[in-house]
Amino acid sequence: MRARAGTSTPALPVYAPQAKVGGKLRFSGADTMHDLVAAWARDLTRFQPNIEIDNAATKLSADGFAALLDGQADVVTFVREPFPAEIDAFTRMFGHAPTVINVAGGSYATKSGTHALAIFVNAANPITRISLDELDAVYSRDHRRGGKAIATWGQLGVGDDWEPLPIHAYGMLHRRESGNPPGIVNFFQQRVLRGGEFRDGIREQVDRPGESALDAIVRSVAEDPRGIGYSGFAYAAPGTKTLALAETERGPYFAGTPEEVTRRDYPLSRQIYLGFNRTPGKPLAPALREFLLFALSRQGQLIVANDRMRFLPLTPGQAETSRLALADVGK
Q1: 33-49, pLDDT tens digit by residue?
Q2: What single string gives the DSSP state of each residue in 276-300?
Q3: Quick one: which of 50, 63, 123, 160 has the most CB atoms within 10 Å?
């Protein structure tokens, strides 16, 4: 199996099991991870033929999480962070939070997938960069990053005729009929707003025939010189540009190159997870532990590199962080 150019994983450990184990694992969740789990399962069972894997054909991570709560699944495929409401429901039922292990990076720019977020402004706007602290001040009601509300472009350092102009903030619909946000909104809310609420007046865009909400956000910014919005790099359109990002105004700032997204230097890079129920103080079931070790191995990450969703393989450091988290699971 050969990885795509630029996705080599030379320092990752090779999966070489110390013993044969057995057991059944039931996976459920995001359909964009279905092929990845199937490929992991196929290659793992060459080493561990006594592990049986059921890879359910569900659509959303929320479907898999509901199955986990109901005892119908052992592992959830998460292409987003768990919703706060999901963590609360799980904790109420089991007395502890779900365990979530990062197994890949989100893509750089795969439409309809879990991709890095870009911040778009109108091409005529002189601004070139913005911090997450400033984005919180633009989008948030609570300002959990400690700043004050920002309402004009002058407050972002844009001078001359731009200084008094109001900022028109665009985004996706904040809540679905289920009461939960879309995955992108959840990520933005947790990563940028630190769990705070959106302020009133955000110009929410929705999916329409022939145009997704993410396309609509970029189109709106192209048509509105005062606009700002979040979307994916693949949704770029004439009349817009993306801003370099930093955690705080002190920097460093990152433009969002594929390399910066892979390393997660870019602040709005995404992650892919596997979630499961583990009782604190008890070891993982052997089959689950071996599956996770395989997914985090060189063989497992080469499979990530060749997946149709173009998820990003973990760097050696990222994989080591996940393996350390896995080592803590049984404590």
Answers
A1: 999 999 999 999 999 99
A2: E---TTSPPPHHHHHHHHHHTSHHH
A3: 63
Give pTM, 2 decimals. 0.92
Taking only the tens place, the pLDDT of each residue in 184-236 is 999 999 999 999 999 999 999 999 999 999 999 999 999 999 999 999 999 99
Distance CA 245, CA 228 (A): 14
- Which uninterrupted H or E stretch holds 320? helix 316-328
Q: Which of 98, 48, 107, 43 is nearest to 76 (CA)?
A: 98
Residue 90 and residue 299 in contact, taking contact as beta carbons nearer than 8 Å:
no
* C-alpha–C-alpha distance, residues 35 and 331, integer Å: 32
How many C-beta neighbours within 10 Å does residue 184 have? 20
**Strand stretches in the chain, DSSP E:** 23-29, 51-55, 75-78, 99-105, 117-122, 129-131, 168-172, 203-205, 227-232, 240-242, 244-246, 271-276
Question: What 3-state DSSP class applies to 306?
Answer: coil
- CB-CB contact of 278 with 99 (8 Å): yes
Write b or e for each residue in 189-202: b if 16 or more Cβ atoms lie within 10 A of its Cβ, otherwise e. Answer: bbbbbeebebbeeb
Q: 262 φ, ψ to 5°?
A: -60, -45
